[in-house]
Design a protein that fits this description.
The chain has 391 residues and is α+β, with helices and mostly antiparallel strands. It contains 13 helices and 20 strands.
Length: 391
């Protein structure tokens, strides 16, 4: 098999890249190790920044998001019974949209298949060779047959545990990582959500009330990293959520049927540089942000917009300068985004290792933000995301 760009992974990074390249007339093949049902069923964050919405609109794939997504103009942070309300349009002139990542993925997959563009599910990549040459090769198995895909460049969009980053020779990429000793227990509930995305820092730990629709809530609790979600009964979950949200009368948060639950392990991770030879890495394959701030999908879109622009320039002019500068351009945004998510994580969670001194410093910072429009603007600007280069 031969193509121009071989894309490993059919998550947001790989799928957005495939559509951007197809629109520019560049051939690509997407290889995904999992089934279509598995990929479309993965529940992730659902906050879309203006740059991501702009990308969907540019690709002509924003129709269902416009119909079913919910425009979000506010962000609340609770502590000590107080609420910091961030008026996003008032502070930044921008809004975000709530639309589940799995719904974005469904739209991207449907459109690619409708365009009869190559997207192979259950195609497990075993390795990548000749990354230092002109025609790297992706070795994979599909329908019980061993296959080889030869291409000009490989786009590694296959996540933290994928084969792409692992294909880089030892010592050529440096990993920077922080692993937290707590996790998020997330549930989907058939219940009316709060009006705004609401974070809470309580003495019992972190909580978050989000939404997926007008009738479905997405709810999170900070738990021990070794905790099993099966140990949390529905009654225990609701009792803890009411307590952490300072909902003493239990008349604000609406309870409902919990129909899905999962555990999110928290880490901050960056691999640098984001390229080696003919391999370009994007999304979770090369950086992970803590889920506070919901940056994963949006950062992946920012990556592949830079990557697509560089590849389009190469095929139009033969110049590799933008490809060679891909990592440097992306990492500036990546580190700033990881900084924001890590800072927000440190501000909102209860850390088991914190002394009373450190806990009081954390609460003092929240008190400062409560009374400072400048501090609120700083958080709001990062939350809605910084502008991307024009498409």
């Amino acid at each position: 098999m031969r193509t121009q760009i071989g894309i490993i992974g059919a998550g947001p990074a790989g799928l957005f890249l495939s559509h951007l390249l197809h629109r520019a007339g560049i051939d690509c093949v997407v290889l995904e190790a999992r089934s279509r049902a598995y990929v479309e069923g993965r529940v992730r964050a659902g906050v879309l920044e203006p740059g991501t919405i702009e990308t969907l609109e540019y690709l002509g794939l924003d129709a269902r998001m416009r119909r079913e997504g919910m425009v979000d103009e506010g962000l609340d942070i609770r502590f000590r019974g107080k609420t910091i309300h961030l008026d996003l349009p008032g502070l930044t002139g921008k809004r975000v949209t709530i639309y589940g990542q799995q719904e974005v993925v469904k739209d991207l997959i449907e459109a690619r298949l409708k365009d009869s563009q190559p997207l192979l599910f259950d195609a497990k990549v075993s390795g990548i060779s000749d990354l230092d040459g002109d025609r790297p090769k992706i070795h994979f198995n599909h329908d019980g047959r061993d296959e080889v895909l030869e291409c000009d460049y490989v786009a590694g969009c296959d996540g933290f545990h994928g084969v792409s980053r692992a294909a880089v020779p030892a010592g050529r990429i440096t990993d920077f990582e922080r692993v937290y000793d707590f996790a998020w227990l997330g549930v989907l509930s058939r219940s009316k959500p709060l009006a705004d995305m609401t974070y809470s820092n309580s003495d019992r730990g972190f909580a978050l009330c989000s939404r997926r629709s007008g009738t479905v809530s997405r709810l999170y609790l900070q738990i021990d990293a070794n905790d099993d979600h099966e140990s949390w009964s529905e009654d225990r979950f609701w009792d803890e959520l009411h307590a952490r949200m300072f909902d003493e009368n239990r008349d604000e948060i609406v309870e409902g049927e919990i129909f899905q639950r999962d555990i999110a392990r928290l880490r901050s991770f960056v691999a640098s540089p984001m390229q080696y030879g003919r391999l370009l890495l994007a999304g979770d394959a090369v950086h992970i942000t803590p889920p506070a701030g919901a940056k994963g999908l949006n950062l992946a879109v920012a990556d592949v917009r830079v990557m697509a622009a560089a590849l389009v320039d190469f095929y139009r002019t033969g110049n590799r300068d933008r490809i060679n500068g891909y990592s440097g351009k992306c990492l500036d945004r990546v580190w700033k985004t990881v900084r924001f998510s890590t800072t927000l994580t440190g501000l909102l969670h209860k850390f088991p290792e914190h002394s009373p001194f450190e806990r009081n410093l954390q609460l003092a910072e929240l008190e400062y933000i409560f009374g400072s429009r400048a501090a609120q603007t700083t958080i709001a600007e990062r939350y809605v995301g910084t502008p991307l280069d024009p498409l």
